[in-house]
Amino acid sequence: MNSGTKDYPYEIKNLDPEEHAKVFKQFNADGGVLEDFIRVGPKGYWFPCGFAELAPKIYNMEVRPDDVWVITFPKSGTTWTQELVWQVANDFNYAKAKDIPLWNRFPFIEFALFFNEEKAQKEFGCDEENKAMLDAANKKFDQVSTMQSPRFIKSHLPLSLLPPALLDSCRVVHVARDPRDVAVSYYHHYHFFRFYGYSGNFKQFWNLFIENRIDWTPYFENVKESWRMRNHPNMLFLFYEDALRDLPSTVKRVAAFLGKAVTEEQVSRLCEHLAFANFKKNLSVNYDILKDTRFVRNEGSFMRKGKAGGWREYFDEEMLQQAQRWMEHNLRDTDLTFPSVV
Ligand code: A3P
């Protein structure tokens, strides 16, 4: 497709027809809008082909010194962390948070990568409400560019695909989660969001995940890019499992990182606000807004279990061994370890 230009240093490759046919067998369900996938750069980051247009725009965008970014591999607790960060940075403005959905307060900059295909226009353009949502999703990059400061921006991109000045210019929070729980959560996500047209079972999904054929994989490359920078003064590296175990400490770490003094009372109220049972009911963050639209299938929910270690119920003996080998291989050159879960 594009072998690297002045505006974008990375090669973008389409799948060959054989791989396309193989992968798309699992993306053929009703309502799917994806047409093709691409691999980007030397690590071969995998995306729907809509990313090709966005990639140079995001890479070359201007960042502002007071931006706050939350970057994660998908399903690592992004939404939870976004709300935490936003509340601390905005002096606990619960009224504003209730009025403005998180996806507008804290836009997902590359959201349009799923939808700028003719098929999506046809699929979503069937009534005014769906069309308006598709337009809003497609304009997330523009929304970020014209937002008032301080901006709060979500991305699942690894640091190497984000603006090179990002970390030296503004604050970045990365949240990581055990990849086996990520895979389970992501599998449900692929079924919940109708636009993937995903029809595979968990074992098939797991295989795609470790073969780096799922959006934003390779998982370990993505996470390790941030891990390597965890001691940069503008990077705060968190784990989902730590937040689950001790949310007040995570809130205090975020507050210290953002230079905010917080009282025990404020921390305690925020933890109550962020508790899974409350979060699941919170219409500003729970994506229930998408129910009854063509974006999602109506079974399941974005806020699913909110636990650590649930992957054990999904892995058979073969997958357990695969996971162990895969993790050992990918962790051999790093001191990254995931918090143990009791
Ligand atoms: P599960 O599917 O395992 O339940 P992301 O926001 O990155 O997509 O991550 C979604 C995952 O975070 C889901 O995991 C979701 O339930 C979990 N999550 C969201 N809010 C949470 C909260 N308040 N407490 C714990 N987990 C939460």
Write a compact overview of the structure shown.
This protein is of the alpha/beta class. The chain has 17 helices and eight strands. The protein has a four-stranded antiparallel beta sheet with strand order 1-2-3-4, with no helix packed on it. It has a four-stranded parallel beta sheet with strand order 6-5-7-8, with helices on both faces.
Describe this structure in words.
This protein is α/β, with parallel strands linked by helices and 342 residues long. The chain has one domain (60-193, 223-330): Rossmann fold (3-Layer(aba) Sandwich). Helix content is 44%, strand content 10%. The chain contains 17 helices and 8 strands. It has a 4-stranded antiparallel beta sheet with strand order 1-2-3-4, with no helix packed on it. It has a 4-stranded parallel beta sheet with strand order 6-5-7-8, with helices on both faces. The structure holds adenosine-3'-5'-diphosphate. Adenosine-3'-5'-diphosphate (A3P) binds next to helix 3, helix 10 and helix 16.
Structure characteristics:
342 residues; alpha/beta; Rossmann fold; four-stranded antiparallel sheet; four-stranded parallel sheet; 17 helices; 10% strand; globular; binds adenosine-3'-5'-diphosphate; Sulfotransferase_dom; Sulfotransferase domain-containing protein
Shape: globular
Instruction: Encode the helix/strand succession as letters.
Output: EEHEEHEHHHHHHEHEHHHEHHHHH
What's the average pLDDT? 94
Q: Structurally, how many domains make up the residues?
A: 1
Strand line-up across the major sheet = 1-2-3-4
CATH architecture: 3-Layer(aba) Sandwich
The fold-level CATH name is Rossmann fold
CATH class identity: Alpha Beta
Strand content: 5-15%
Structural class: alpha/beta
Ligand inventory reads: adenosine-3'-5'-diphosphate
Largest sheet: 4 strands, antiparallel
- The total count of helices amounts to 17
Distance linking N and C termini: 47 Å
The number of E-state strands comes to 8
Low-pLDDT residue intervals, each spanning 5 or more residues: none
Helix content: 40-55%
Round the Cα radius of gyration to an integer and report it: 19 Å
CATH superfamily: P-loop containing nucleotide triphosphate hydrolases
